[in-house]
Amino acid sequence: MKKTIAVLLxxxxxxxxxxxxxxxxxxxxxxxxxxxxxxxxYYSNFNAASVDFYNITKDGVITGNGADAPTNALSFLRSxxxxxxxxxxxxxxxxxxxxxxxxxxxxLNPSVANLVKFAQANGFAGINIDFEAVAQGDRNxxxxxxxxxxxxxxxxx
Length: 157
Prior knowledge:
Elements: E1 4-13, H1 17-21, E2 26-29, H2 35-42, E3 48-56, E4 62-64, H3 71-79, E5 83-89, H4 97-103, H5 108-121, E6 126-135, H6 139-155
Helix pairs in contact: 5-6
């Protein structure tokens, strides 16, 4: 049986003095029914939100996940000065070890460049990489991908 690693990394962020002053309390936002009402009701309990709407392809292209764009949630978070992180997954119908492998090897450079551009274009504080089904043999490749992405995001501070 193929062993896999499930990884949820939050906090590859553009640093700022304000973000470093208080501990991060991160919430997860998706398009599930009732989530927008919960977001607007409980926003005082967190200071950052991972907005789950985005996927990455084997070529490092960032796409939506098929749901409506979360424009209302992003507008609300900005109005409350709550840091939003783009949550990007390795999903193509299901969690894809092939996408995780390609993004962390052959498509490493375009993936990192596209993720940085994506964060900047959307005003995100950073990127939340939500990769699951990463093959055990890709552990070092995946770690290298995360390190390269972190360096690239922090270089844009």
